[in-house]
Amino acid sequence: QSVLTQPPSASGTPGQGVSISCSGSSSNIGTYYLYWFQQLPGRAPKLLIYKDDRRPSGVPGRFSGSKSATSASLTISGLRSEDEADYYCATWDNGPSGSFVFGTGTKVTVL
Amino acid sequence: EVRLVESGGGVAQPGGSLRLSCAASGFIFDDFTMHWVRQVPGKGPEWVSLINFNGAFTRYVDSVRGRFTVSRDNSKNSLYLEMSSLRAEDSALYYCAKDTTSGYSGYEVGNFDTWGQGTLVTVSS
């Protein structure tokens, strides 16, 4: 099991807003930058948000990230059908061995 | 165009070995840290290893440390993952990914801006 916990699913109708939480601890989210990845079916993960709240060029403005203490969230404002995908938070964890870790993942369904 | 192409996957027996390769193009390969990430179909990604820009520093997830070795040949714009003592639980789609840093600390890595299409590894007798 991952040290980063996400809800298994989230859903909304087109145009609605959806938020996905990512819960960790002081050894990961509380210390290091947080990243979000989107994975469409059959595709490699794609960077969606980097360094907590920054959007790479080409990522639509409806995606935003935030972080507070040991939790983070990804918000999709104005859901579109093409946003139906799996979403993963990720960061470094300075546990006994230190490693990069991905969250448990959230499947977003557009109703 | 920035591109990563993995190869070398296949079927290996438990206890066996495989060498994965990742060919990079479209960017200055020796400026950036590179990663291997694996994913069992239907499950989430798992970070496996990283190597910094010049190969001097490497890091591994606990489950592969001592069995897998990451390396790079900057003259060939290539990244490698030597896998030995393979186990059934190593079966997964293996991706290489480019970072935007040249470093290796937890404060620097994670910005995986480019991924390959993956190469499938199956460990089975």
In short:
Chain A contains no helices and nine strands. Chain A has strands spanning 9-12, 18-23, 35-39, 46-49, 63-68, 71-76, 85-93, 99-102, 106-110.
**C-alpha end-to-end distance of chain A:** 29 Å
Q: Into which percentage range does the β-strand content of chain A fall?
A: 35-45%
Approximate shape of chain B = globular
Please tell me the overall pLDDT of chain B.
97
Q: How far is the first residue's CA from the last residue's CA of chain B?
A: 40 Å
Your description of this structure?
The complex is a heterodimer of chains A (about 110) and B (about 120). Chain A has no helices and 9 strands. Chain A is an all-beta fold and about 110 residues long. In chain A, strands 1, 3, 4, 7, 8 and 9 form a 6-stranded mixed sheet that branches. A 3-stranded antiparallel sheet of chain A has the order 2-6-5, with no helix packed on it. Chain B is an all-beta fold and about 120 residues long. Chain B has no helices and 11 strands. In chain B, the strands form 2 sheets. In chain B, strands 2, 4, 5, 6, 9, 10 and 11 form a 7-stranded mixed sheet that branches. Chain B has a 4-stranded antiparallel sheet with strand order 1-3-8-7, with no helix packed on it. The interface of A and B includes residues 37, 56, 94 and 100 of A.
Keywords:
heterodimer, A: mainly beta, three-stranded antiparallel sheet, 44% strand, B: 125 residues
